Amino acid sequence: MKTEGSGKLLRIFIGESDRWGYQPLYTAIVEAARKAGLGGATVFKGIEGYGGHSVVHAARVFDLSSDLPVLIEIVDSDEHIRAFLPQLDDMVKEGMVTLEAVEIIAYRA
């Protein structure tokens, strides 16, 4: 079955070493998104990047960083994404969040 519609893409840019309690922040965000009933979340680990402090973090042999960039993407309706934003306000201490309008095509068995 194929369904189509409009929605929001939520992107959360954080560091690999960011924590929420005793677990990685990216894990906590994915669990919070699942509990909030959002459609799905994917975590991507970057191989190089820099943020607000302009410090380059890279996965090179001679420059092993312990704080590589991490990107979490979540797609759902505008209403569901915006309802989830207050939880991110509590969880993300340093990073960036972006929102984009997207067209969603979902395939389901």
Shape: globular
Oligomeric state as shown: single chain
Over all CA atoms, what is the radius of gyration?
15 Å
Q: Give a quick account of the main beta sheet: strands, pairing sense, barrel closure.
A: 4 strands, antiparallel
What's the rounded overall pLDDT mean?
89
Number of beta strands = 9
Helix-strand category: alpha+beta
Number of helices in the DSSP assignment: 2
* Strand order of the biggest β-sheet: 4-8-1-9
Instruction: Give helix % range.
Output: 10-25%
- Could you name the ranges where pLDDT drops below 50 across 5 or more consecutive residues? none
Distance between the amino and carboxyl termini: 6 Å
Q: How would you portray this structure in words?
A:
The relative contact order is 0.36. The strands form 3 sheets. Strands 4-8-1-9 form a 4-stranded antiparallel β-sheet, covered by helices on one side. A 3-stranded antiparallel β-sheet has the order 5-6-7, with no helix packed on it. The longest helix has 14 residues, at 78-91. A hairpin with a 7-residue loop joins strand 5 (48-49) and strand 6 (57-60). The chain has 109 residues and is an alpha+beta fold. Helix 1 runs antiparallel to helix 2. The protein has helices spanning 25-35, 78-91; strands spanning 2-15, 19-20, 23-24, 41-45, 48-49, 57-60, 63-64, 69-76, 96-107.
